[in-house]
Amino acid sequence: MTKVGVPKEILDNEYRVALTVAGAHALVSAGHEVFIEKNAGVGSGITDEEYKAQGCTILPDAPAVFEKADLILKVKEPQDKEVGYLRKGQVLFTYLHLAAHPKLATDLAKTGATCIAYETVQMPNGALPLLTPMSEIAGRLATQIGANYLERPMGGRGVLLGGVPGVEPGTVVIIGGGVVGTNAAKIALGLGAKVTIFDLSLDRLRYLDDIFNGQVRTVYSVGHYLQEALVRADLVIGAVLIPGKQAPRIITKDMLKTMKEGSVIVDVSVDQGGCIETIHATKHSNPTYVVDGVLHYGVANIPGAVPWTSTRALTNATMSYCLKLANKGYDACLESSDLMKGVNIHNGEVVHPGVLEAVNAAKVTA
Hints:
366 residues; Rossmann fold; 2 domains; globular
């Protein structure tokens, strides 16, 4: 039997929770004890009473949950005070994005806890099963958010992405043709925008050309052609991902200066450091800022804006892994190559290559 703890998320405007009622039922049915912080699920439409009905124990605050639990389930990376609650021998399972937060990686290593990142759990075929559902949501939201901020009262150019008869539609440039980029393109096309996707994989571009039936312009490389596209862009969506590593900076400050005043950038890759040189992480309570006349949106937990949907999409994907960790602890990672790739911190050491690279780079520049 494992004691499983679910604290309430404390990141700015983060309403997701790491365990649904169905997930709680599955863990309790498997013989585990589940401790939920009071009101942890309210933002996602889940009450304490619903958890209690499944046999969970409701605790008054986060310290009580961390003290009781051997396995901690979260959504976002631990905030400063949460790091202090972790202890040696505990397993933490959550999104971490430590390549963008090298100090947090170092602080987590000092706790002695084993920290497993949703975003680096990887299947043998290269798929990222726990990142995919949030990437789908973030991609779809990115276009929706960009369309909103293009409105003049929101600080944008005053462009309707879909246009109207007699007036051309807006232009959307998407950097990266993975899950985020594909879903962003679906919504942009649905709105009637002109869409261009840049990617460095010809195979991926062929796939995108096929599924979008030629409606999306696909372009290989991101240098000269991207610079030309930025001049025409109304909305740019950053969707670059290198699993576990910091995102490469694709759009430079100089390139930004060629963009139209009032155009909008939504950089979904900001949780890995961002692919735009001028981007920095923002919060839902203060999501945007302007550089050289271009409105930047850098919220690092975009799916937190739609917690009812995103909590359920996330836990659908994480639940089988949560059960493995509850049943066997760290040994589950030794038996699962998927989970082993998710291990970022173990025995007081940073063990994921991409995170270690970022930590070492931070030491050099310090």
